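Posting for a labmate who doesn't have an account.
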Amino acid sequence: MSGEAHVRDLTLADTDAYVSLRREMLEDTPWSFLAAPDDDLVLLHPERFAERVGTGAGEPPCILGVDDPGPGAGLVAVAGVYRQTRTKVQHRAGIWGVYTTPRARRAGLARRVVQAAIERARSWPGVEWVALSVSGDAPGAIALYESLGFERWGLEPEAMQVDGVRRDELHMALRL
């Protein structure tokens, strides 16, 4: 990647770029996401992307992304963040769908989109916690989340099965 990468809110105009990156993430690291290309709602129904980006004005839910500013520009890193909507859990937010395309890895982009997601959750009145789940087979992602202050609170054994291999899911949370 060249140039300065800027984290921004995705909008409906990003539907095609996000759908393309979403397909890539589900195929590139299938153990990192509960969805599969044949059952992912956004891949099957791109119009559902609107539900993931909300108003696009910083209100929940939202997807934050980074575009490659260099040649071959396109969406290269994303993270979604949402606020729980039920009355008893509105003090909690969640981060999901964190991904950086292989050509843009090792540039700190995952850290930047996750930090932006944390800051977005922090900006929502009354939100005190942000949670996420991560594959037990993703030590780099686990290290990233721990370096940002997330703490492990549970392990879901054999949470998913990919190509006949069962994989654990680690649950983590950060008090804002």
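Reply:
Got it, the structure tokens are right above this. Helices lie at 15-28, 41-44, 49-53, 109-123, 139-147.
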